[in-house]
Amino acid sequence: MISHAEENYLKAIFKISEKGTRSANTNAIAAEMQTTAASVTDMLKRLAEKNLIDYEKYRGVQLTGEGNRVATALIRKHRLWEVFLMEKLGFAWDEVHDLAEQLEHVQGDKLVDRLDTFLGHPKFDPHGDPIPDAQGRWSFRPQILLSALQPGNSGAVTGVDDHSAAFLQYLDQLGISLGARLELLERISFDQSMRVRTPDGREITLSDKVGQNLYLTVEG
Amino acid sequence: MISHAEENYLKAIFKISEKGTRSANTNAIAAEMQTTAASVTDMLKRLAEKNLIDYEKYRGVQLTGEGNRVATALIRKHRLWEVFLMEKLGFAWDEVHDLAEQLEHVQGDKLVDRLDTFLGHPKFDPHGDPIPDAQGRWSFRPQILLSALQPGNSGAVTGVDDHSAAFLQYLDQLGISLGARLELLERISFDQSMRVRTPDGREITLSDKVGQNLYLTVEG
DNA sequence: ACGTATTTTTAGCCTAATCTAAAAATATGT
DNA sequence: ACATATTTTTAGATTAGGCTAAAAATACGT
Q: Which candidate in B86, B106, B113, B116 is best for mutational testing of the A interface (most A CBs within 10 A)?
């Protein structure tokens, strides 16, 4: 039996390890979980005891095969519920995260699999993040940051890096949603801001910070 | 803030009070919650402290207005999720209870209301139990037990009293689902068993115990 | 109405998960 | 390489929720 708290720690460790830059050390986990380092140490002992992580004092942690399986299943559930909330219940993409955070802890493999079928086996969630399948396999697609695009080229928005409500609401306000085709017209060398053409033909200016958080897939 | 455990106690107290026969005393609550009387006493103190119940030592409990509101909202969520699981995900009616038991604790009024809209504002759940609306108002419809029906009369199955998987699976096996029209042909005086005609024209025999757990609505 | 049975509460203990403060280990800068 | 800074762990306390065993209150049968 794995508690909700334990599940959340496994997910946090997965996320940190995924980024690869930082090692999954105690402080990083504490920051991700919004808790104290002492609490994290406590929990790491418990997770190691259950063979969900490999843990050596002062040396950071790594998920075991089983820990990875649990974290992957959790992410699958989270992202499938996000799709449900947006596609079926009409929530906006900045509203789904907190609800999915609760729904992902509902137990029942049959539930997840039927939800997956009901939604038509989606491969990506409303933020463009991949949804692992029932066997834990991930989908990939080539995507680059808007800020890495050469002026004159265009692509479809397929993901965001920053998942904050503030960023997502700003994108809504700009009329940019997942799938929107953007053309990079010009890069301003002074502040790295970008002049971009939106799907409806408008020309807008985006800051470099926006460009660093928008993933595009360049067509054919 | 009300914890999951507190919510479950409120729901249990509601259920016991609803039946009316027994008062909501400590032992009844312990039985309903599958726990000990000592644990119940502890919790009752906490719930009284939060003004969710009226509690006098040794004298049983009653929900306050607020306690009733919380319990009603919980039942609303539970039953809406049951409808979702059966109608949208194709679960059988003996499978939905345990999943709904988890889903009902997901917080978010907007979620419930949107789910309600998505499902078309159902008034009854897959077991025929009424679903309170967002204001806590209940739907009623006239229904009587099959065992109280006069031979020669017929009605549509609109509810079950026993919600156990064993009973529901037996009904499935008999080809009796919600909405099925049954005609009571004959009552056997020896053991109170009943000869009944099913929607597909078959004649079957049902025990009195089955008759005591099947609610019918008699048309016109 | 009085002794017995039942119900309910109290008391004391347990586990999971969290916290703060202090100690220990590791990392870093000159 | 050594003093200082940072990170991590330990120690001890807290809260929610649950348990068992014993005590107290209430109910019941004759």
A: B106
